[in-house]
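Here is the promised in-class demo. Please do not try to memorize the tokens; focus on the logic of going from shape to residues.
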């Protein structure tokens, strides 16, 4: 696998050039600067433990999903901590005029859910990792359905990708995007009417998946590996929120919390 060593010196102007030395295309660089400026108007951001973001080499970032806004916030956090994010995102987003073209230009990865093409998204992500890039996955697959907005059951894609490539899995917890842009109408959307919203993003240490290395990519391997990844994400979400998560984890098909080791889709 390519070492992904970043070229020395700034590639971009201003603050971005001082903190990010990883080459990227123009679309990503412009998007990061625009997001940074817009988020300063909407949010007061507390970025923590940015030094834990690996500055080079292939890496799989995994994060909790609480709002349609949080990919912008997580992407901004990573860009201004030295890595360009390549998200696995719903394929239908790529069909939206303008947005779809922008996502493709920014080298994001479409995920075709529930189809034979779904495996192709992991192959595309694997190709990104082979080039030493950073891939971002929301293991929950969608904005959480947990009534208290904690991380819910995870899908196995991140674990499978990690086992195939050996790339480290780094958890990110975040909170506050759901206050600025609430999901599914659970709170009224009132941008700017309550001032800027506090948003916290925190990065953790790589998840220890060493006991699963070299094992077959089967149910007995990917399920416990996924549960461990979700535990790491939940721990970061707890730090971001300053609260303790419930013992169980929400499983959407049961509409209830179940033991964490059973909460794998």
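The designed amino acids, position by position:
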């Amino acid at each position: 696998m390519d070492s992904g060593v970043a070229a020395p010196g700034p590639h971009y102007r201003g603050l971005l050039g001082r903190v990010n030395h990883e080459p990227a295309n123009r679309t990503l660089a412009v998007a990061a600067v625009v997001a940074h400026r817009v988020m300063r108007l909407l949010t007061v951001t507390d970025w923590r433990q940015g030094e834990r973001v690996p500055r080079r080499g292939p890496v799989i970032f995994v994060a909790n999903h609480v709002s349609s806004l949080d990919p912008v916030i997580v992407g901004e956090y990573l860009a201004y901590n030295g890595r360009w994010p390549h998200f696995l995102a719903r394929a239908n987003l790529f069909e939206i005029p303008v947005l779809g073209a922008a996502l493709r230009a920014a080298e994001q990865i479409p995920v075709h859910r529930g189809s034979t093409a779904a495996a192709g998204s992991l192959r595309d992500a694997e190709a990104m990792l082979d080039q030493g890039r950073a891939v971002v996955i929301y293991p929950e697959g969608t904005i959480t359905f947990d009534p208290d907005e904690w991380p819910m059951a995870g899908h196995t894609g991140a674990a499978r990708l990690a086992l195939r490539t050996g790339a480290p899995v780094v958890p990110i917890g975040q909170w506050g995007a759901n206050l600025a842009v609430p999901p599914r109408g659970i709170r009224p959307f009132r941008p700017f009417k309550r001032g800027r919203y506090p948003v916290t993003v925190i990065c953790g240490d790589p998840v220890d998946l060493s006991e699963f290395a070299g094992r077959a990519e089967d149910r007995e391997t990917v399920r416990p590996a996924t549960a461990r990844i979700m535990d790491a994400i939940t721990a970061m979400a707890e730090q971001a929120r300053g609260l303790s998560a419930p013992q169980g984890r929400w499983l959407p098909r049961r509409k209830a919390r179940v033991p964490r080791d059973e909460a794998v889709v």
